[in-house]
Amino acid sequence: MRKDSVSVSSVGGPCSNAIEEVANRNMRDAEDMARFGKKQQLKRNFGLTSIVGLTCTLMITWEGMLTVFEQGLRNGGPSGCIYGYIFTWIGNFLQILVMAEMGSMVPLSGGQYNWVAVLAPPRYSRVLSYFTGWTTFIAWQAVAASAALLSGSMIQAIIVLGKGDGYITENWHLLVFMYCILIVTIFVNTVLARLLPQIESIVFMIHVIGFCVIMIVMIYLTPHRASGVDAASHVAEEIENAASVVPRSMITSVLLNGALGLGMTVAILFCIGDVDKVLSSDSGYPFMEVFYQSTGSIPATIAMTTLIISAMMLSSIGCFVSASRMTWAFARESGVPFANHIGQVNKRLKLPLYSIGLTASITALLALLVLQSPDTLNAVVSLVVAGFYSTFTISGSVMLYTRLTTPKEKIRWGKFRLYWTGVPITTLALIYSVIGMFFSFWPSSAEVSLANMNWNCVVFGVTLLFSTVFWFLHGRKTYNGPIVEVELEELDTREPSFPPGFGPDAAVRA
Question: Considering the entire predicted model, what is its pTM?
């Protein structure tokens, strides 16, 4: 060893402690994955702050409330909007508590289908996890497409707001906007992938600051008058100390986003002036009319709307991350066709490039439906709520069954546990999920037409039929649940994983 060098172990102080802590976290993550037969393939870039940023901006609760409050206002009035939101928030929080516990027990990318595969009775594990995987896979592909659709349609709406009758909307314009958003999303998910945690942290700041700006402007400028939730689980293998960070990020995101969403719902209802004019807005987005009534200025309305559009576009990045990682994880278990390719990870970039390409291709193909009509694509992506609620119902039911039939000392709990509250919380979450899934099939208004018909039941039914057919043709022959890639015993002979250039025997220049 050189005289001007010393080993890490002899350095001491904060530097040595920090390096040792990183090594210990890496070893714990490796052990958690090895318990389920998995080896580390993706790079763990995300910490608590960045993954909270990812999940919060993916959920975009307060931004989303601006785009959907019209339905609650039409059907339940202002009080219906408020109480309906609170009911949904509580229900989602119960779901997240159950998912956080399962995510801590099984910290693998893929989320629900892995939880079902590990926790379900062996006799039913394979088929239940397969159907859960396919439903989750299709739902996340729909999410990725719907994010691009929403952002693109809002760009069109802001052009209508600015130019009025001087701009004639065309379906192919919307397609171009969607493809531009998709190109940016692919670029961030590949070329800038190593910067994703930093990007998501910045996006999180925009998410919170944007809320404050919109709230202050609306409430300050409006005359006082009477007022007229799993993404982290799909990137678990890219999170340091996933068994602890995943549940914490889920719970933090729902609490924070829920509070912001409730605040925005109250504010938008407080600031509504002419309700009829708001509901008949030419832009197709009533919140833009509320902005205009508050500010009395088209440029100010455009500036405020641009904040919302930016949040929506940035959210599409998070949607794409989760969708592509879910696709890769399920392909790794031979759950989809051409799994040998789709389940590969580029060794140099440590990215699932094939699954990223597949997700991009599916989004691009679905986007072509807007040439027929945006309503056609809306019909396809309407299965999102039913897809997510149905997969939670399966995984939550399996968790409840495990609690009721297995002695608690024989269950290998994660770092987050519900203890005695687990049974009542899981039961209430399942009741909420069934209610939510049931009403997700209903039309949004009493007067139903082909344009506003809720095609969720048809699309979801086709999804189940496709999954069933594919199970008998392919899945039952190739899918056996999580494939063992490494044995836990192999880790016993491994040295702890230190950052490059460090370790007990590494030399560090003094």
Answer: 0.79
